[in-house]
Amino acid sequence: MSVKNSAIRAGLMKAYDYMEKDPEQNIPKIMNFLDTVVPDSVLEPQRRAIRKVIGDRDNNWYKLLLSLFTDIDAGVRRRIFENFVVNSGVVGLESADWFKEKYNCNIPWAILMDPTSACNLHCTGCWAAEYGNHMNLTYEEMDGIVTQAKGMGTYVYLFTGGEPLVRKKDIIRLCEAHPDCVFSSFTNGTLIDEAFAGEMLRVQNFVPAISIEGFEEATDSRRGSGTYAAVIRAMEILKRNKLPFGISCCYTRANAEVIGSEEYFDAMVEMGAKFAWFFTYMPVGKSAVPDLMVTAEQREFMYHRIREYRNTKPLFTIDFWNDGEYVGGCIAGGRAYCHINAGGDIEPCAFIHYSDSNIREKTLLEAYTSPLFMGYHDNQPFNENMLRPCPVLDNPGRLTAIVEASGAKSTDYQDVETAKEYFDKCVDAAANWAPVADRLWTCSGHCAGCGKD
Predict the structure, then answer these.
(1) How far is CA 195 from each of CA 89, 191, 199, 299, 400, rounded to the nearest angstrom?
(2) Which Gene3D superfamilies does the entry link to (predicted)?
């Protein structure tokens, strides 16, 4: 770490300690304090945004920030701040920028990996449900992935699957082995109990994102009877133990109106969720259910609702398809993240099951510079309209060209599906969304010659 970043790290931790002493009084003053310990040019956009938030105590973002000091265990809160803000946001970016420049490739901010293909549920339309307990990454392989990636600046790791908490003990072991990283998990929540909450309090660097499809009827109809009740129990355990958690919502043609309702948002805030990841249903694999894909009208509904609630609800939200304008389009292929499945295949995205590299045969850096990942690097963004970011769902043919040029193979465990077969299922959705996305993009001030940014 450079001398400059060492000073920034020390300054940020001093600022945190200042807030910790009296959050209600000191949060509004924090930027003035930060100005005394961190150079003006550092994290300038973020500092402007924070000033806007903390300048109004009635602001929903201010309420969310203050709730972190009242609702979250002090040790967990400090560890997450240090690992997420300082290690990932300062130390990691310095390393990642060095590798990006030297190798002219993407270096991910976060890595998703599947400890196992096994799952204790059988959700409608989920590819993982078809795989069974056939594939697993060993603890040593997962530890090696983290060790390699940290050396290139990646400090954030998200477990997917399968159901990651089938491997609870190894996940906690990784948290212990890498206390400078943030670990999270997309989980159905049914395996979270008091004992696991105690382990989370002990390691302090694990934050679950619980998958929930809406209220009881919508959740149980896709995930099985009793799942919603188990999810609510898990949230109650986490909230009672002052552990941070979020929710993961897949909106489909069957539940979009529920997921986007004010009643649903309010319920999740009341349960204690601090963040929410939103995904639209993708028809991955030959066993997928294309009829679950949202209509263009439903996708626009979610676009408006999430933006509305960002201004009114104390919940941090990201919609991985409709928020492309904030991150410059597609973030897969290592641009912000990549995915490693339970068989060791290194994939551009959790929804793109094609690979030309395996962790058992290549290093991460070799994968990042492979033809498949460089195809992403050289073609992003896939559309000038950032509301059409995806090379499959929004831009049919783009993924096929990259996969065919790179020689990447399908990583589907059961039924090999070509990239063309995959995108064929998305052609109608892309055609229907394009005029809606273009209208929204223009109306938000991105039209040529409009004079807006």
Answers:
(1) 31, 10, 7, 39, 46
(2) Aldolase class I
